[in-house]
Write a structure and sequence with these properties.
single chain, alpha+beta, four-stranded mixed sheet, 3 helices, 32% helix, 19% strand
Length: 131
């Protein structure tokens, strides 16, 4: 049985390929957006991920990495994995949050499946996702 709440998608809603896309207007890009979220957002930590979130008019997401992660290849791989994990679970989220997902140095030792699981658990802890 699915939970009912304002962050849950309507029951019986079919998930289309479009629901799993990540359009450019859904990604936080400007310094102003990140600064506002860091200043006024609520922090939730789970494993090697930190999620900073707040209420917003529409869903937007940003991805950031710890400065301890050296090497562009490693950083870009982790960002791709975070984007994919987010993209695959976003249909379970409401449309009224903006958040930043920050990966710490511990993410280097994790597989994609572990990163995806930590992201889902972190989003549940932050009450952004409901199952």
């Amino acid at each position: 049985m699915q939970k009912v709440g304002k962050n849950c998608p309507p029951e019986g809603r079919k998930i289309s390929r479009k629901d799993e896309s990540l359009p450019k207007d859904e990604i936080l890009r400007t310094r102003t957006d990140f600064d506002a979220l860091f200043a006024h957002g609520e922090r939730t930590r789970w494993g090697c991920l930190t999620i900073i979130h707040r209420k917003a008019a529409r869903r937007r997401v940003g991805f950031a990495l710890s400065r301890a992660i050296k090497g562009a290849v490693k950083r870009n791989r982790i960002k791709r994995q975070l984007r994919e994990a987010y993209r695959r679970c976003k249909q379970r989220m409401g449309d009224d949050r903006e958040f930043v997902i920050i990966a710490g140095e511990g993410v280097l030792a994790k597989s994609y499946a572990q990163i995806e699981l930590e992201l889902i658990q972190g989003l549940r802890k932050a009450r952004i996702i409901c199952d």
